[in-house]
Amino acid sequence: MGRPRTPLLDRRRITATALELVDEQGEFSVPQIARRLGVQTGSVYHHVDGRDGIVELLRERIAEAIDVTTLDLRPWDTALESWARSYRAAFAAHPRAIPLLMINPVRAPRVLQQYERAVVLLRDAGFPVAEVMPVIGALENVVLGSALDLAAPAAMWEIGDAAATPHLAEALDAAGGDRADRAFDLALHGFLTHARARLARHTGSRTE
């Protein structure tokens, strides 16, 4: 038999299969990937740097959906807000990947380059170097928490007896179906307001 025109195994197929497993169950294993692709486990290891390597391939795959050109916008807060919204959308498509990726160090070169651009944005805006990573980390807390919130059940609070918690029942009724989006907008606005104030203290500029 001649060689198949399409390779049975490559990094793209391994990544896609791992992402399918994560979307389904929140985790993956190399043997699971191999079984789904119909190959031996050892064959998978020929194409990737172990399980950690697959995690970084997943990170790169999801991050591809983030519009990095938003980091070229000015002023800095417009860029950061646009990046946050794109970042949230990318991870909201794969919320079960968030816990997996957040407990593994970021090593993927293309993802590191995205952080590099965010750091340059904040440094150019006037943030002291010691402030930069806390600002980025705080923004990620807002973004990733909101991405998980989007994946939560529509009825996150189940009230059996409205008379026992009447104020909660009233607040839930008033929240509407876009509760998660409104909560994200509120958190992002609060984050940006605080970040502007911190920058103003360092530069002496006025906040909006």
Automatic annotation (TrEMBL):
Keyword Nucleotide-binding listed? The answer is no
Q: Which InterPro entries match?
A: Homeodomain-like_sf (IPR009057), HTH-type_TetR-like_transc_reg (IPR050109), HTH_TetR (IPR001647), Repressor_TetR_C (IPR004111), Tet_transcr_reg_TetR-rel_C_sf (IPR036271)
DNA binding happens at which residues?
29-48
- List the GO molecular function terms: DNA-binding transcription factor activity; transcription cis-regulatory region binding
Entry keywords, A to Z: DNA-binding, Transcription, Transcription regulation
Domain of life here? Bacteria
Q: Which SUPFAM superfamilies match?
A: Homeodomain-like, Tetracyclin repressor-like, C-terminal domain
Q: Report the residue ranges that make up the HTH tetR-type domain in this protein.
A: 8-66
Please provide the Gene Ontology terms (biological process) for this protein.
negative regulation of DNA-templated transcription
Name of the protein in its database record: Tetracycline repressor, C-all-alpha domain protein
Q: Which organism is it from?
A: Streptomyces fumanus
